[in-house]
Amino acid sequence: MRTVVNLWPYVWPKDRRDLHVRAVGALALLFIAKFVTIAVPFSFKWATDALTEKGVDNPEVMTVLAGPVALTILYGVLRAFMQLFTQGRDALFAAVSMNAVRRLADEVFVHLHRLSLRFHLERKTGGLTRVLERGRTAIEQIVRLSMLTGIPTLVEFVLILGVMFYQFDWRYSLVVTVMIVCYLWFTTTATNWRMSIRRSMNESDTDANTKAIDSLLNYETVKYFGAEKREAERYDKAMARYERLSIGSYVSLAVLNSGQGVIFTIGLTLVMLMCISGIHNGTNTIGDFVLVNAMMIQLYQPLNFMGMLYREVKQAVIDIETMFQLLNEHPEIEDKPGAPPLRVDAGTVRFEDVHFAYDPVRPILKGVSFEVPAGRTIAIVGPSGAGKSTISRLLFRFYEPQKGRISIDGQDIASIQQRSLREVIGMVPQDTVLFNDTIAYNIRYGRWEASDAEVEEAAALAQIDNFIRLVPGGYDAQVGERGLKLSGGEKQRVAIARTILKGPPILVLDEATSALDSFTEREIQIALDRVSRGRTTLVIAHRLSTVVNADEIIVLDQGVIVERGRHEDLLARGGVYAAMWNRQREVDAAQEAIRRAAEEEGVSVKVNIGA
């Protein structure tokens, strides 16, 4: 009931008068259909009584059969109208139920995008999509079952009990009432028992689905390590648990159906014996015997629906409760009430005494302060785990610092709208993930209203236009799941083209050339230098050769700025930066020596030694 109450605003949206009309019309047809349904057994009774009273041995056959024939035709007409009204009700209510499904599913989808990066890093995508899929189906079941099965069944119960009392006597109503109460008690008790099995079965289903998606997304890694058998065993282990619980679910369903059948049969037998006694005493007719049998058989369908309604609604509630839990999940980062949009005049970025930790026991940034002047380029370098990429995540407000302040043109980003913040920042991440769509779609994602000519110009600036034109399908070529049809360098250049197309006043390049070979890196670096000219640019780099022209280089180590200055000044200082530079020069020299040796031997070799 709580779930139905929560769903009511979606079933009865205030802004959709047309759906209100449909819902009221469906309700009217519901009552008409039920009154016709109750009339059907009466027409059967009347036809039976007409036949038994006059008999078929009368020589005037047509006269004798005139009444029964007319009543039989009435019986057929009533059944036809019952079907027409029922189907009309379903057709009218379809738009109401599916609108509720769309609205709630869309709200959950939007809400998932509002939740923090931390939430998505801690959850498994396969599990989330499964929750969304099952929840969407559950919404439709609850809305349609409550309106198209629950209410009609209750109406039919009341009408049948009234007929039993009026046409026969209170004893019939009492027997039917006791039978209904016993039937529903057994149904709810057995269904509650089955729910624990169902919940465990859903968990095992989600677990198996998550393992399958995770393994398929890491297809290449599985192949690299020859782990097909291990992955199959993991998946089979999850499916074995699902199999065991599914068998238990089917067995419990058989127990439930058997008990329901026995209870109903006892009730049916009792009222028919009572009617036989009435016929013997002369208080009932053969038609009454037919009527009570037809009425009870007709009662079985809504009773069965009631059991199915309770089972399905309870199961749907289990499936939908996680979806409502997602809706109740509060975003870690929220705009303050009345937060204004960000106004960018120059684009100066400033970090002031910023402290941050993903986990309180492991601080990442410890009082970091620096400024990226408008139109200038600042590079942040340092060993892995120093906190470089964390700076970009804080700038995008994926997280908020525990202490300190981050501002753009003097405006604290914690006090402005997140959407406006992200509109002015372009990002080329270290690990580029593309949508499973066309190359053009992925580039145009930077600015959706861009023309084809602008998309191609951005691709040319990112040094990928020539490659695209050689690919079958060109810009309409599919990139595959997560962009797996493209190499790492090609994906990176698509990401660069996407950011170029966005044309933001502030750029963040997080290891933007990390996946490129030395030759392509130089070409991309020239393009990035051209694109970043006149823009505030924050470069997070591992390869120091990409930041030698930065206006200032900040060396980060263990969350603390240990050095800062221009490339030449840092080399002259002979500190941490100089040591990193010398190590990379040694690696580059080793790579060049190996390459030359290979060329002298006439062998083509691609060498890439990690710095």
Give your account of this protein's structure.
It is built from 18 helices and ten strands. It has 611 residues and is an alpha/beta fold. The protein has two domains: 2-328, ABC transporter type 1, transmembrane domain (ABC transporter transmembrane region fold, Up-down Bundle); 349-424 and 504-600, Rossmann fold (3-Layer(aba) Sandwich), CATH 3.40.50.300. The strands form two sheets. It has a six-stranded mixed sheet with strand order 6-7-8-3-9-10, sandwiched between helices. The protein has a four-stranded antiparallel sheet with strand order 2-1-4-5, covered by helices on one side. α16 (518-532) links the parallel β7 and β8. α2 (17-54) runs antiparallel to α9, α3 packs antiparallel against α5 and α5 (125-167) packs antiparallel against α9. The model is unreliable at 54-66 and 604-611 (pLDDT under 50).
Euclidean distance between termini CA atoms: 62 Å
- CATH architecture grouping of the largest domain: Up-down Bundle
Shape: elongated
Radius of gyration: 36 Å
